Amino acid sequence: MAVTVLIPTPLQKFTKSKAKIECGGGNISELIDSLEANFPGIKKSLCDDQGEPRRFLNFYVNSEDIRFLEGTKTSLQDGDEVSIVPAVAGG
User: Fold this and answer.
1) CATH topology of domain 3-86
2) 37 HSE (CA, 13 A, CB side)
């Protein structure tokens, strides 16, 4: 199963400057583990010590925020697109 993952610029240092990669996983948690297997060190930037996505990162599956779905247990299907979007703050 292949899922397209859109990588934000700050994390492209782990993906050899690739903004779009193909990865596998039945859910977001498995996808993160697959990303780590293919791009060592990226999980530390994506997840906290409990393995949950960091507060300043948003994950979207086909434009749906996983916080309003099933979190890291959100199921993935072949052809899905996962976007990792850093939160933006300012004033």
Assistant:
1) Ubiquitin-like (UB roll) (3.10.20)
2) 10
Strand order in the sheet with 3-6: 20-23, 3-6, 81-86, 57-61, 64-65
The pTM of the whole model exceeds 0.70: yes
Sites in the chain below the pLDDT cut of 70: 90-91
Do residues 80 and 4 lie in contact, with contact meaning Cβ atoms separated by under 8 Å? yes
The residues with which 22 forms a beta bridge, in sequence order, are 4
Q: Which residues contact 5 (CB under 8 A, 6 or more apart)?
A: 20, 21, 22, 23, 31, 35, 81, 82, 83, 84
- Please state, in angstroms and rounded to a whole number, the distance separating the CA atoms of residues 48 and 59: 14
Burial class, 34, CB count within 10 angstroms (exposed 0-12 / middle 13-18 / buried 19+): middle
What pLDDT does 70 receive? 96
